[in-house]
C-alpha cells in the first residue's frame, strides 16, 4: 500500500501505524456542529432503534435530501415495527416507489416480520444478532448497534473511507484499497478510548458529509486538521483515488403494451430474486447486452409473450441502473391472442389506468407507461 509521511514526503510501507487523532476533539466538534436529522435522537434522548434502522436502510444508496421526506411518510404510515410487519408487501413496495433498489423494501418488510416473530418486536442490541436479520449486513449491524445501543463498533461507510484515506495520505485507488482502509479505521473506533460510540460513529458521518467532503474539503474547519497527512502534503482534494471506470454496459429490450376489453393493461411480476425483484413491468422476454441498438423490428415477434399484430411505438425509453444503461422500445397490437387466464403463480396482473398510481410501479416501468400513453395519445390526435 502506498502512504506518505506528512513531514518528509517519503513513502511509508504498509506496516506503518495508522493515524489516530484524539477522539475527544471530534466529539467536541460534533457537540457543536451535529446535523439535525429527523431520525436522530437529540442530546439526552434515548435513540429509537426502529427509527435508526429505518433510516439506515433508506440511506443505503439514497441521499439524505431524498430520504428525509420519505422517511417521515413511512413513519407516519407505520409508526411501529409491528405495524410495518402487518402491512401487505405491495403497500410497502408502493410506499418505496421511486427510491430504487427495491430489494431494500422487500428486506425491510421481511426484517419487520422476523423482528416480530423472533424478537417479540424488539431490536436485538448487538451487531451479531442484528446481522441475522434480512437486509442487515455487516455495515448496518455495526451502525445500528453503535447508534441505537451505544455499543462500540467499526462503522465504515464512504465518508469514513474518505476521511481515513486522507488522514493517512493513502494514494492507492478504491475499490481495491477498501480492506486496508477498514483496517486503518479499526483503531479510530475500537482503540483504547471507546467513549460515546454512537455519537462517535455519527460524528464521523457528519465530518465526512459536511467538512471532509469529496471536492474541496474544508480543512480549516476540521478538528483533526493538525493530524491529517493529506492536508500536510496538499493532496487532500485528490484523495481517495479511484480506478477509472469504463463506460457502463448497455442493454436493450422490447416491452409489450397489452390491453383487455375493459381497458386494463397487463403487467408481469418480475422474479423475486434479482434486479427489481417482485416488481411489475410491462411484459418482456429479455434484455440483451450490446454496444449498438439491435434491429428492434426483427425481434418484435420473437420477443413477444403472445401472438399479435405487433408494431413499435415511435421513440425510446432510457433508464440508467447502477451497473448498466437500458434502452427499450414499446410495442402495441390491435389484436393479441392467448392472454393469461389461469395464473396460479400470480405472475400476471391487470391494472386499470386509474390504478396506475397505486400499483407500486418502479421508476423504469412508470417511465415506459408514460411514454406509451403519450405516444398513443399523439397517434390518436
Ligand atoms: Fe479531511 Fe481536511 Fe480534515 Fe484531513 S484535514 S480529515 S482532508 S477535512
Major beta sheet summary: 5 strands, mixed
Number of DSSP E strands = 10
The fraction of residues in strands falls at 5-15%
* Distance separating the two termini: 65 Å
Rounded Rg: 25 Å
Helical region count? 14
Helicity, in percent? 25-40%
Q: What letter string, H or E per element, gives the SSE order?
A: EEHHHHHHHHHHHHEEEEHEEEEH
- In round numbers, the mean pLDDT is 90
Shape: globular
Cofactors and ligands present? Answer: iron/sulfur cluster
Note poorly predicted spans: 4-13
**What structural class do you assign from the helix and strand content?**
alpha+beta
Q: How would you sum up this structure, described in words?
A:
A hairpin with a 4-residue loop joins strand 8 and strand 9. The strands form 3 sheets. Strands 3, 6, 7, 8 and 9 form a 5-stranded mixed sheet that branches. The chain has 381 residues and is of the alpha+beta class. It has 14 helices and 10 strands. About 3% of the residues have low confidence. The radius of gyration is 25 Å and the shape is globular. The longest helix has 18 residues. The protein binds iron/sulfur cluster (SF4). The site of iron/sulfur cluster has 14 residues, from helix 9 and helix 12. Iron/sulfur cluster binds next to helix 9 and helix 12.
Amino acid at each position: 500500500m502506498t502512504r506518505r509521511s506528512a513531514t518528509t514526503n517519503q513513502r511509508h510501507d504498509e506496516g506503518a501505524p495508522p493515524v489516530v487523532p484524539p477522539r475527544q476533539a471530534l466529539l467536541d466538534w460534533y457537540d457543536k456542529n451535529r446535523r439535525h436529522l429527523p431520525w436522530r435522537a437529540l442530546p439526552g434522548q434515548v435513540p429509537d432503534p426502529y427509527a435508526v434502522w429505518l433510516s439506515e436502510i433508506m440511506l443505503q444508496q439514497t441521499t439524505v435530501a431524498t430520504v428525509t421526506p420519505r422517511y417521515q411518510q413511512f413513519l407516519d404510515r407505520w409508526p411501529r415495527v409491528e405495524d410495518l410487519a402487518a402491512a401487505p408487501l405491495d403497500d410497502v413496495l408502493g410506499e418505496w416507489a421511486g427510491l430504487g433498489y427495491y430489494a431494500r423494501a422487500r428486506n425491510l418488510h421481511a426484517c419487520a416480520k422476523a423482528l416480530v416473530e423472533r424478537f417479540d418486536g424488539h431490536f436485538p442490541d448487538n451487531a451479531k444478532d442484528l446481522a441475522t436479520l434480512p437486509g442487515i449486513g455487516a455495515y448496518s449491524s455495526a451502525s445500528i448497534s453503535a447508534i441505537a445501543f451505544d455499543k462500540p463498533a467499526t462503522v465504515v461507510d464512504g465518508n469514513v473511507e474518505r476521511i481515513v484515506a486522507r488522514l493517512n495520505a493513502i494514494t492507492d485507488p478504491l475499490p481495491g484499497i477498501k480492506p486496508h482502509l477498514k483496517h486503518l479505521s479499526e483503531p479510530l473506533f475500537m482503540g483504547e478510548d471507546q467513549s460515546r460510540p454512537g455519537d462517535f460513529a455519527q460524528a464521523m458521518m457528519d465530518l465526512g458529509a459536511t467538512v471532509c467532503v469529496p471536492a474541496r474539503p474544508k480543512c480549516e474547519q476540521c478538528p483533526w486538521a493538525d493530524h491529517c497527512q493529506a492536508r500536510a502534503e496538499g493532496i487532500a482534494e485528490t484523495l481517495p483515488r479511484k480506478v477509472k471506470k469504463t463506460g457502463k454496459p448497455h442493454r436493450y429490450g422490447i416491452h409489450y403494451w397489452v390491453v383487455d376489453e375493459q381497458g386494463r393493461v397487463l403487467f408481469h411480476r418480475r422474479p423475486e430474486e434479482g434486479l427489481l425483484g417482485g416488481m411489475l413491468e410491462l411484459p418482456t422476454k429479455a434484455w440483451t447486452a450490446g454496444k449498438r441498438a439491435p434491429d428492434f423490428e426483427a425481434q418484435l415477434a420473437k420477443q413477444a409473450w403472445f401472438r399479435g399484430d405487433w408494431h413499435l411505438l415511435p421513440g425510446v425509453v432510457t433508464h440508467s441502473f447502477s451497473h448498466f444503461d437500458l434502452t427499450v422500445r414499446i410495442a402495441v397490437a390491435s389484436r393479441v391472442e392467448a392472454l393469461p387466464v389461469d395464473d396460479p403463480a400470480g405472475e400476471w396482473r391487470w391494472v386499470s389506468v386509474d390504478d396506475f398510481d397505486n400499483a407500486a410501479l418502479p421508476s423504469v416501468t412508470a417511465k415506459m407507461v408514460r411514454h406509451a400513453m403519450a405516444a398513443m395519445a399523439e397517434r390518436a390526435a
